Write a sequence for this structure.
């Protein structure tokens, strides 16, 4: 037995011979007796989920008899004040140091860590992306303990419990998304994969599958979110949000357009590995929160922008665009009488440093 005081329980002392175990489930247990001071001051500090019962008995030698200690834990377990981590302790394939650390983390943040851990171990996550960012994200999800990682892209080395599906047709993508709990669409820094990422996100929306949108910019920023869910903003709504942001327009839209026009070469060399690992780690943590429910994700209608150099973080709301042709049910036409292909705003730097906007109508 590996006893742990439930995270939802707090101890309140009431004099020398009484204490209360107050539960967040609106339950109160009263404990009375001459040994209450020993229980509160000597026994409970040892109930940290790191010691087995035999170790606790050994450390309390000379304070309480073995029979008394085991009787106390039998009583606390009966009333659900203490839980036994050994009952569903990670074993077999889940006995790695990373999985044990994750189990210990969930134990400290939830009253049902085993249920959360097993939910993650049974989950399937689909990941779409390219290059080193896709490789790092797939490896992070595998290390985290996700049961199956389906990779839509090319990887040089396939992580454990990962399946590589390659650049598949729309029908194959639909088949690969079947049974997944979450999809992750990761745009690398080349900017020439935007159409493929958008298409993948739309396929997820069609199937009603939540999809986490992630973008790594060439200047060292990570755009994490929003979490595309049915009824919420989609990737098209995110693009509208980007266009309304001056830096986003300049760094993403304008650069991507110049790449397509052949005015500049796409950035194919990945950013330094620490930058990529940061994005992969942040993405895997959001996946952990979504699947286990250990904490509510703030990215349902928001985009988190992480500056990988300064480590500054900002949250930006992403609103659902009315009559969006992608995510608004029953909307076949855009709310405006033109679309992005018919109207383009082109900004050019001229020698005197002024911006000259030009509007082209098709």
């Amino acid at each position: 037995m590996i006893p742990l005081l439930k995270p939802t329980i707090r101890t309140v002392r009431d004099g020398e011979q009484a204490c209360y175990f107050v539960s967040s489930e609106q339950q109160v247990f009263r404990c009375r007796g001459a040994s209450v001071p020993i229980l509160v001051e000597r026994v409970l500090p040892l109930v940290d989920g790191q010691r087995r019962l035999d170790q606790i008995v050994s450390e309390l030698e000379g304070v309480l008899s073995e029979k008394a200690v085991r009787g106390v834990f039998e009583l606390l377990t009966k009333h659900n004040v203490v839980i036994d981590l050994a009952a569903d302790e990670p074993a077999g394939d889940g006995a790695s140091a990373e999985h044990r650390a994750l189990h210990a983390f969930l134990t400290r943040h939830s009253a049902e860590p085993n249920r959360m851990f097993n939910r993650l171990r049974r989950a399937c996550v689909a990941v779409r992306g390219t290059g080193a960012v896709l490789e790092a994200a797939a490896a992070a999800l595998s290390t985290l303990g996700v049961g199956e990682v389906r990779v839509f892209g090319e990887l040089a080395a396939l992580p454990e419990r990962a399946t590589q599906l390659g650049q598949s047709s729309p029908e194959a993508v639909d088949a690969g998304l079947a049974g997944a709990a979450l999809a992750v669409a990761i745009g690398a820094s080349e900017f020439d994969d935007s159409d493929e990422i958008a298409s993948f996100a739309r396929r997820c929306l069609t199937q009603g599958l939540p999809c986490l949108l992630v973008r790594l910019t060439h200047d060292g920023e990570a755009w994490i979110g929003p979490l595309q869910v049915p009824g919420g903003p989609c990737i098209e709504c995110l693009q509208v949000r980007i266009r309304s942001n001056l830096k986003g327009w300049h760094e993403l839209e304008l650069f991507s357009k110049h790449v397509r026009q052949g005015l500049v070469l796409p950035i194919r060399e990945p950013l330094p590995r620490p930058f990529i690992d940061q994005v992969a780690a942040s993405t895997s943590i959001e996946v952990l929160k979504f699947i286990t429910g250990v904490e509510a994700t703030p990215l349902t209608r928001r985009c988190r922008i992480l500056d990988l150099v300064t480590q500054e973080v900002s949250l930006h709301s992403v609103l659902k665009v009315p009559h969006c042709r992608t995510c608004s049910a029953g909307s076949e036409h855009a709310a405006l009488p033109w679309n992005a292909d018919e109207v383009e705003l082109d900004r050019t730097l001229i020698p005197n440093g002024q911006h000259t906007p030009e509007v082209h109508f098709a």
User: Anything to note?
Assistant: The longest helix spans residues 273-292. Residues 73 and 98 are 29 Å apart (CA to CA).
